UniProtKB/TrEMBL annotation, chains A, B, C:
Binding residues annotated for ATP, in chain numbering: R121, T167
Gene Ontology BP, a term: thiamine diphosphate biosynthetic process
Residues annotated as binding substrate: M45, G194
Cofactor dependency: Mg(2+)
Purpose: Catalyzes the phosphorylation of the hydroxyl group of 4-methyl-5-beta-hydroxyethylthiazole (THZ).
Keyword annotations: ATP-binding, Kinase, Magnesium, Metal-binding, Nucleotide-binding, Thiamine biosynthesis, Transferase
Superkingdom, natural source: Bacteria
Protein name as catalogued: Hydroxyethylthiazole kinase
Family: Belongs to the Thz kinase family.
Annotated metabolic or biological route of this protein: Cofactor biosynthesis; thiamine diphosphate biosynthesis; 4-methyl-5-(2-phosphoethyl)-thiazole from 5-(2-hydroxyethyl)-4-methylthiazole: step 1/1
Top-level EC class as recorded in UniProt: transferase
Matches recorded under Gene3D superfamilies: 3.40.1190.20
């Protein structure tokens, strides 16, 4: 993947301002909306059964996130997902905490079964639990990560028949045939809540303007990590509060030169 | 409207710390509460059917916002609104995303029909959809804005029999007879989620201390815009993350001199 | 209480990263999660009846907060609390706004009656209302505070049979027999929403690593206040927006020397 194509994809987001419909958890709504706005996309959140499908139909992409799931929002996710599937709108899924409780694991598996998901993004434990592999999880954070992440991602892509993005120290993006490893990002991301959730929504924004979903995923993951690296350079001495704010600033400013300088993508 | 009366109205908010009851969406709760605290008001949020009316009765004003509406919160809005109406407590309404889905449009129209709303605030598309005028909307953002906003606001004020505040590049405040155009504010407000919602709650805070609701509305809109301009001066190079934080700082600091220098209000 | 034991307790949090399960209000979810992450703990939020108990069972502590209560989240609190009680996991309760509406007061009293609460934290008005003493409340903020807070705390600890933490200008921590007064903290805490809620969750984090719950409570309250004082030193000129962010920074950095220099604890 050529670095200059990453910036072109970002520029499409900034120009088209795709409407990204998020049905997400109550912890990250504000940060997700502000992150999407900073990137140049247009966020909307509508989680009532009465309107979830209608909102999905007018969106460029749909992002589902089970971080604080309940039966009503799960119903809305299914309705919105079906509407998106009918219209060919990409659906991105974040199985937050799959494996932590049976309800999460079962709901994540149900969503994968009942909807056509284009891309699933999670940490290694979450993805493993969705596909029924054994993997330790601690709350909503990944546990041991000494398994082979790339192997897990490829297995998951084959079983789930979608693009799999596993984030961690390095990020793996695969459709089961082609696999990319992105080494951008910064450990401070783990000290701010919702940075995984926002990445899922950022992938959603990129799929709203780029039909090649592998291209969209790799561009989103790399650019997101670059913004984090740049934010960390300015705030690592200050702490996670300042990092969170500077990260939003940097998301709004990633330039072509930054991508050339920072992007670390291996096939 | 004399500029010195604006500061007096702000000073009343700071002195009386009016209790503003917000039934609002899950994206903006934190930002709204922090914005009201920065301004000097006292925010409270209670959205259960079991207590919405009780909380409204002890508040100085009630703010209703349908950004992430569902049947339960709509029931709570109606109950709280009826209680506020009985006690003569001002009710301010923000029809977020009216026009984006039938559920939003119908709920917004139902709230206007069943409650006595003192002030409605939205973008041009939202207000147009509440009164049944054709206007494009994209998610929860206004679409084309080449219609005549002032005409739309006056028509809406007559049809809805309340004060109408339409915000955009310039902000229009009208009761159908007297119309003000406020030219404060900054484009960075559109890069932070919930700045429209917070403005609605800030108008609510001002109505909690000022019985002349046109005075309250114009003061709130202008002072809010001034805080944004001052925040933008300090953060436009940094980005939307820093702007959001500095905006809260500036809301807590607007001074008499700032109003004299920045206020732009035309009748 | 020796100052060096406070830092040791903090260090245990940073080392063990206890999983703190929060069933809390929609205003403070993000700030609470980020505050716990900054401190070094691992936050999780799960408020559905379908999983609340399962999540509580794997947590190091459970924090219940009725800031935006509704029948479903209250059911989840009871289920999670019962599961925690069975396993001997500490349950910390924040009766936000008790006294403001009958529903809050009754729910707070129900939670105290049906669950074994280890620690309750609130302002004077909230605690007074939970134990049925007369005390004025304004929304979710404490009203008059000219009563004797220490007496109220001791009475409450005896009636409720748990540790009581009353925060205000000074903070009182008592189990009814031993009473500590902590004079750390800063008035800017009252200009940021959710600082009381986050403190309750921080107490939760400390109880996840320290079996002596008085030690855990005093350490949490003092260290929290120290972070606020240090943040205020850097941001008091800027305003509440900057303070909120710097407070997160400082929570991540409290050092042994800070505690020696700032801690103000009287028995």
């Amino acid at each position: 993947m050529l670095k200059n194509t990453l910036f072109e994809t970002l520029q499409k987001v900034r120009d088209a301002k795709p409407l990204v419909h998020n049905i997400t958890n109550v912890v990250v709504t504000n940060f997700t909306a502000n992150g999407l706005l900073a990137l140049g996309a247009s966020p909307v959140m509508a989680n009532a059964v009465e309107e979830a499908a209608d909102m999905a139909r007018i969106a460029s992409s749909l992002v589902l996130n089970i971080g604080t799931l309940n039966p009503q929002t799960v119903d809305s996710m299914i309705l919105a997902g079906e509407a998106a599937n009918e219209q060919g709108i990409p659906v991105i899924f974040d199985p937050v905490g799959a494996g932590a409780t049976p309800y999460r694991t079962e709901t994540a598996q149900r969503i994968m079964r009942e909807l056509k998901i284009s891309i699933i993004r999670g940490n290694a434990a979450e993805i493993a639990n969705v596909v029924g592999e054994k993997w330790e999880i601690k709350g909503v954070d990944a546990g041991r990560t000494n398994g082979n992440i790339a192997d897990l991602a490829i297995t998951a892509a084959e079983k789930l028949n979608c693009i799999v993005v596993i984030t961690g120290k390095e990020d793996v993006i695969t459709n089961g045939r082609t696999t990319y490893v992105v080494a951008n990002g910064h450990p401070l991301l783990t000290k701010v809540t919702g940075t995984g959730c926002l990445l899922t929504s950022v992938i959603g924004a990129f799929t709203g303007v780029e039909k090649d979903l592998m291209q969209a995923s790799v561009a989103a993951v790399s650019i997101y990590g670059i913004a984090a690296e740049k934010a960390a350079e300015l705030t690592v001495e200050s702490g996670p509060g300042s990092f969170q704010i500077e990260f939003l600033n940097q998301l709004s400013k990633v330039a072509s030169d930054d991508i050339n300088l920072y992007a670390s993508i291996k096939k």
